[in-house]
UniProtKB/TrEMBL annotation:
Domain PAS per the UniProt entry, residue ranges: 429-500, 554-624
A molecular function GO annotation: phosphorelay sensor kinase activity
Domain Histidine kinase: 1014-1227
Keyword annotations of the record: Coiled coil, Kinase, Phosphoprotein, Transferase
Organism the protein comes from: Halopelagius longus
Keyword Phosphoprotein: yes
Name the UniProt record assigns to this protein: histidine kinase
Coiled coil regions, renumbered to chain: 980-1011
Length: 1229
């Protein structure tokens, strides 16, 4: 058993009891034992030998304090000191005595209360006291008992040496647990030497002179005081001699290996790999193992990479990468070094199986059976494991000495790895610094005290115009300094070399004569030879100086702009609510004079918008520049002027101020208001075009303050304008407003211009001679062109008989242009809708032939695109043939061939498959096409026509005069027209093919019906003969047949009957088309009633329930429809299963037809059989199960198809079936 006891430092300071002593604990800071004595079982019994009170309490008080902190009960027996002296000594050294006494954790007794409880020394009474103390401490929850006893009582006359020895021997078995510790105190000055001698012999640990000592003279009491004491002491001394000799040899060997390792690691001539190999060799010899190794490890990635190995091994070779978990090093890699230790505690593996490595590759595959390793952390790099291994097992564990030596090797190795890492980092930093110096755009140089240039980087060489360092390094730097700055630089250089720091601006003149203005920041630099030189970072500030000069010039310009700007400019401190400056335009805006305004603050101009103003100010100062918002600015007379404020932060006289440019946006606000009204009118879905136009004209009159407005249309370029809509005019809309007088004024000029045309006062201008002015006295005018796509349509205009005082503003011109754009859009949309509607009407007109429709389509295209010629062309082998043509051309007509494909506009359409349009073919580079230079087609728009997916040709429009480009709406219309033409051609082709197919089908059906009729008719005669002879045979020879004969005869008769039924059914099936009645209105309710009556007996026998809703009136053949209902109802009754049949007949209108259904709850039909049931003679059941010919449903399908309908079944086996069929409604026939 062992305890942690007071420790001792080199300076012999007060021992510190840090807790119970454990043999596994050690530290370089402790002086004293680090392990238990071999054979000493009573290490909790300690002896303190002191010479004075200070030395006594310097050891005892920490002993007691440590016990209190551990929750132990501390018992002190005072004899050499009084109780009060003991307590005072504890208080002086920081023990909370009162609290410890009150809690029972501390008690101080006199020797009479312990050793002389019965009035004289009684060893049994004394032991009883300690037993009670131990029992009470355990009962009260203390973790243990710690006793400190002064032993001076043993000097009294009633106590002798033997009693003391007996007492000491009895204490050993009493304190044999980890929770008990006793410290016996002996005053060396008072005890005889022989007693102190015996104390030294019988205590394994001694505290003396503030030092904890491992007692090498220790002898167990039972041996020391036994009868063979002298013999045992001789044996022990002989053993001690041997032990000391072994220890000295061990120390010698340890020093040898340590010295060898030190010599290896301190040898500066060896490379790291050589040092590592030497370490491996020493380690293998020291530990008796085969190989030494160094590996990189990373537990997170399970990395184990061999970095070096001392010998040959099949698996452990440099560069080998293994799973860390498959190696012994995994235990080391997970361990951390102890505090104040460089490497982790070495880990040994001497029995891999017991250590849990029986399945690991290191044992199972590599056959490594002994291992000693430690983890070596490396800052800034992967950790390493430093290990030694052997294939032969090791019988004994590694000694603590070997483990310590291994750790020492690891520490040296870590130092070397860290040094190499630092050298690598230093090289990298040096390279980085050199690169930084060389790549920095500033000049870095060193200059000697005499002005010699010692070093300069590339940027500096470039600044002085040097091609290489040899051009200037070694020469005088003063030669590069401008003459007027040379003396100042010389003085500056001398001050720097004397130890000062400083900054200097000067000019240099480079080798190429270039002059630069430089700014140098310099400091002294002491070189290894002791010389102090001037090191400086010098930047070229030529541009900066020029910028500063430009800044001064800009400031002057700013002041000029500030004073002369038409925009109001305010400089203020919004956070101090102070106006700092204002320009004349600002004074004019707010109506104050300068003194009045500077006495106000910015808040005075925004009294109703302070929250928004504060937010604006915060945004300006957070953003720093370019912050814009709209606020109202209060003028002197109280008017709030809407204003746009653009502000930024400026520095003026070391103050951050806000410079605000304020612009009156009243006109813009008004413009926006009118724009909103314009949008409201045009976006109103409830208003038609005419209503919107009238409101727009009224809005414009109000916006421009003009009395009249109108929309004029120019039907033809050479014709006259007509008024489509007018406001404020006393003019009949059906009359011409005016004819074009040819003066290029008013609407005539407007329709030829892309921009709005305006005149504030036509008097004294050429417009005064215009007929419009002379007749209508329109003195002021504003108009804009209106177009339908790219075709000019007319003008939107406003006018007045009074002149305007002010010219029309850009905002007014922009507003009428916006109005014109909307009117143009609406007109184009209206015309586009009309054109599309016309296309649909043409294609939907069944009274027109295909040729008539194509002619009408070409006519519509010419009108919509405003082009005189329209053509449908058919692509031939070498050219396009004109199949249809609208309009006239002197050289082109229907049936003629256009120029070859290679010289034809239409080829571009066919090649691309897209519509192609060009307003001016010559400008577009088409002038080499024959259609251009032979037929003079200057304008062209065409799209491809496809028929049944194949290219047919083109539909195209052209003119001999160029025009503006085609709009997207016009191109869309052209594509749609091409689709309509293609549809008509496809329809014509389909009709022709359909007619041919119908003729063929009619001929085929007639032949089939004739064959079926003939076959069924011709079969009737032999069938009747067979039936007659069978009947005759039955009448004459019935008595001659036995039972088999009668059965055979019955089969023959039945077969003949079924044959007759099949022939009759086939005959009826073949006559559906040829023998049916003409279609006429048929009441299906009446038809169903007739069928019910015909099936009355069958219905009653089956107890069937046939329900029906109200059935419609249709066009059809009543007898055939009756046959359909009869067949379906008979099937519903026949296939009802075991339950009485439940049948429901219903009808539902679906567009132009009726859907009839017959639903039953019978046996149902399998999904895979639902198509078979409509096949002639195809039956799903045997005749023994259900009778029938297999023609009923096939006949129903034939009848329904004759009526233009379809028939089908929906069924689930066991759930019944629903037969549905469609018939055309009466009004559709």
């Amino acid at each position: 058993m062992s305890k942690q006891i007071p420790t001792h430092t080199d300076q012999r300071t007060t021992p510190v009891f840090e807790g119970r002593y454990s043999p596994s604990q050690s530290s370089s800071a402790l002086r004293g034992p680090v392990e238990s004595l071999d054979g000493a079982e009573d290490n909790d019994h300690l002896a303190l030998v002191y010479e004075d009170r200070a030395e006594q309490f310097a050891a005892v008080v920490p002993f007691v304090r440590d016990g209190l902190e551990r929750g132990e009960r501390c018992v002190y027996v005072a004899d050499d000191n009084t109780v009060d002296e003991v307590l005072d000594a504890m208080r002086e050294r920081g023990v909370d005595v009162d609290d410890a006494l009150e809690s029972g954790a501390l008690s101080v007794h006199t020797e009479g209360e312990v050793y002389r409880r019965a009035g004289e020394f009684d060893c049994d009474a004394m032991m009883e006291f300690w037993k009670e103390t131990l029992a009470d401490a355990a009962a009260e929850g203390f973790s243990g008992v710690r006793a400190a006893a002064e032993m001076t009582w043993a000097l009294d006359a009633d106590s002798d040496h033997d009693e003391l020895c007996e007492y000491e021997s009895l204490l050993n078995p009493l304190y044999d647990g980890d929770e008990y510790t006793v410290l016996c105190q002996y005053n060396r000055d008072r005890f005889p030497a022989e007693v102190v001698h015996d104390v030294l012999k019988t205590h394994p640990y001694l505290v003396y002179d503030n030092t904890v000592c491992r007692n090498v003279y220790y002898t167990p009491p039972e041996e020391y005081f036994g009868p063979e004491r002298l013999s045992r002491e001789i044996d022990r001394k002989l053993e001690t001699l041997v032990d000391r000799t072994d220890a000295r040899l061990t120390v010698t060997a340890r020093e040898h290996y340590q010295r060898e390792v030190y010599e290896i690691m301190s040898d500066s001539d060896r490379e790291f790999d050589e040092k590592l190999d030497a370490l491996f060799e020493v380690g293998c010899e020291r530990f008796g193992l085969d190989l030494g190794g160094l590996a990189r490890v990373d537990p997170e990635t399970d990395l184990f990479e061999v970095e070096a190995i001392s010998g040959e091994h099949d698996h452990l070779v440099p560069g080998a990468r293994l799973d860390l978990s498959e190696t012994y090093c995994r235990v080391v890699a997970d361990s951390d070094p102890e505090p104040n230790e460089a490497v982790s505690e070495p880990v040994e593996i001497t029995d891999p199986v017991d250590s849990g490595f029986e399945n690991a590759a290191c044992f199972a595959e590599f056959d490594v059976r002994a291992y000693l390793g430690t983890r070596v952390p490396v800052d800034g790099d992967d950790d390493r494991t430093f290990f030694f291994v052997a294939e032969e097992p090791r019988e004994e564990s590694f000694t603590e000495e070997e483990r310590t030596f291994h750790r020492l090797m690891g520490q040296w190795l870590r130092y070397e790895l860290q040094r190499r890492q630092r050298e690598r980092e230093l090289r990298e930093r040096t390279e980085h610094l050199n690169a930084l110096v060389e790549t920095t755009p500033e000049c870095i140089k060193t200059v000697a005290a005499d002005g010699t240039l010692l070093q300069m980087n590339s940027a500096g060489l470039e600044m002085v115009g040097a091609d290489s360092a040899s051009d200037v390094v070694g020469a005088s730097v003063y030669d590069l300094i401008a003459s007027e700055d040379r003396e100042r630089f010389r003085e500056f250089n001398e001050r720097i070399c004397e130890g000062e720091r400083g900054t200097l601006e000067f000019d240099i003149v480079g080798l190429d004569g270039t002059r630069r203005h430089m700014e140098s920041h310099a400091a002294p630099l002491r070189r290894p030879d002791g010389e102090t030189v001037h090191v400086a970072l010098t930047r070229d500030v030529t541009e900066q100086v020029e910028r500063e000069a430009e800044l001064r010039r800009a400031k002057n310009r700013f002041e000029t702009v500030f004073d002369r700007s038409n925009d109001a400019i305010f400089v203020n401190d919004p956070y101090e609510d102070e106006m700092v400056d204002v320009n004349p335009a600002g004074l004019e805006l707010v109506g104050y004079d300068r003194e009045e305004l500077l006495s106000l603050g910015p808040s005075d101009f925004h009294p109703d918008e302070m929250g928004q103003f504060r937010a604006f100010v915060d945004g300006v100062f957070e953003n720093g520049h370019g912050w814009t918002d709209e606020l109202c600015c209060r003028t002197k007379d109280g008017e709030d002027v809407p204003a746009e404020i653009s502000a930024s932060v400026i520095e003026l006289d070391d103050r951050e101020l806000m410079l605000a440019v304020v612009r009156d946006v009243s006109d813009r606000k008004e413009h926006e208001r009118y724009q909103r009204e314009l949008y409201t009118i045009t976006a109103d879905p409830e208003l038609g075009f005419d209503e919107k136009l009238e409101r727009l004209l009224e809005l414009g009159r109000d916006r421009f303050d003009l009395e009249m407005a109108g929309l004029n249309h120019l039907p033809s370029w050479d014709g006259a304008f007509r008024l489509e809509k007018g406001v404020g005019l006393d003019i009949d809309p059906d009359e011409e407003l005016w004819t074009d007088p040819g003066n290029d004024c008013y609407c005539r000029r407007t329709i030829t211009e892309d921009e709005p045309v305006d005149m504030a006062d036509v008097r004294d201008t050429e417009w005064a001679d215009d007929e419009v002015y002379r007749e209508f006295h329109i003195t002021s005018y504003l108009g804009t062109k209106v177009s339908s796509g790219s075709t000019p349509y007319g003008t939107l205009w406003f006018g007045s008989t009074e002149p305007r005082e002010e010219p029309f503003s850009a905002a007014e011109r922009s507003f009428i242009e916006l109005m014109g754009q909307w009117v143009s859009y609406e007109i184009e949309r209206r015309e586009d809708n009309e054109s599309q509607r016309e296309l649909y009407e043409i294609t939907a007109d069944v009274s027109l032939s295909t040729d008539e429709k194509i002619d009408r389509l070409l006519e519509t295209g010419c009108d919509r695109l405003d082009l005189p010629v329209g053509m449908l062309t058919r692509e031939r082998t070498e050219a396009f043939e004109i199949k249809h043509m609208r309009g006239s051309h002197p050289d082109l007509d229907e049936g003629t061939l256009t120029p070859p494909l290679t010289d034809n506009y239409c080829r571009r359409v066919v090649e691309t498959g897209d519509s192609i349009s060009v307003g001016d073919a010559g400008s577009a580079g088409w002038d080499e096409d024959a259609l251009y230079y032979e037929f003079d087609l200057r304008c062209y728009a065409g799209t491809q026509v496809t028929v049944d997916g194949d290219a047919y040709g083109t539909v195209c429009f052209a003119d001999t005069s160029p025009r503006e480009g085609f709009t997207e709406a016009e191109r869309t219309f052209l594509d749609l027209l091409g689709q309509c033409v293609g549809y008509e051609l496809e329809r014509k082709q389909y009709e022709r093919e359909l007619e041919e197919t119908v003729d063929q089908l009619q001929q085929s059906n007639e032949r089939l019906e004739q064959f079926a009729y003939a076959a069924s008719h011709d079969l009737q005669e032999p069938l009747r003969m067979v039936t007659s002879y069978l009947q005759l045979l039955e009448r004459r020879y019935a008595d001659a047949f036995d039972e088999d004969g009668e059965e055979f005869l019955e089969f023959a008769v039945d077969g003949a009957d079924r044959m007759r039924e099949m022939i009759d059914g086939l005959l009826e099936y073949s006559r559906v088309e040829t023998r049916g009645d003409p279609f006429e209105p048929v009441e299906l309710d009446a038809v169903l009633d007739d069928v019910r009556e015909d099936l009355q007996i069958q219905i009653e026998e089956a107890d069937a329930d046939i329900a029906a809703g109200e059935l419609p009136r249709v066009e059809g053949d009543a007898s055939q429809l009756r046959q359909v209902f009869q067949n379906l109802l008979e099937n519903a009754i026949t296939y009802s299963g075991d339950e009485p049949p439940q049948v429901h007949v219903d009808a539902e209108r679906r567009g132009r037809e009726w859907l009839l259904s017959v639903r039953d709850e019978g046996i149902g039909i399998e999904p895979e059989d639902q198509d078979r049931i409509f096949t002639v003679f195809d039956r799903l059941h045997s005749r023994e199960e259900y009778d029938g010919t297999g023609l009923g449903l096939a006949l129903c399908e034939r009848i329904i198809e004759r009526h233009g309908g379809d028939i089908w079944v929906e069924s689930e086996p066991g759930e019944g079936s629903t037969f549905s069929f469609t018939l055309p409604a009466e009004q559709d026939r």
